[in-house]
Amino acid sequence: MEQDNFSINYENYMEQSLTHVVRFALLDAEQRGIPSPHAFYISFITDYPGVQMPPFLKAKYPENITIVLQYEFSNLKVSDKEFGVTLSFDGRPYYILVPFAAILSFVDPGVNFALQFPNHKKEFERIMAEESLNGENQQELPYNHEKIVSLDTFRKKKP
Fold this sequence. Notes:
single chain, 159 residues, 31% helix
């Protein structure tokens, strides 16, 4: 076993654990609601892969948004990788789906509790840089000029 390149990534372990704290809080809210004085302020990257939200909202908040779960929300669904919830914007209900990896912060001001996820932003930037590189590497294929046929050969010639 090669020991030179091996390192324990405690920072990553901690962030995964903190993500589980958010998931468990949301699971409680899914099953029992959010009791007073609690409220969840969740900031997330709107452009993160897997985020689903209305286009007008994504246009208004192209980088990130903070949603509040307190009194007026419904249809909260929590899975291992994401959560979804129906919230009202401009008086109309919209379902939003958020992967946990897109979360930047989770705050419950009612009990003075806050979590930050700086590695989620770093991971998003890495994903976007990778996609950008892949897009730049895709060049148009050159034409095979030997197979191009001129239509002039098939046209009737005028006398």
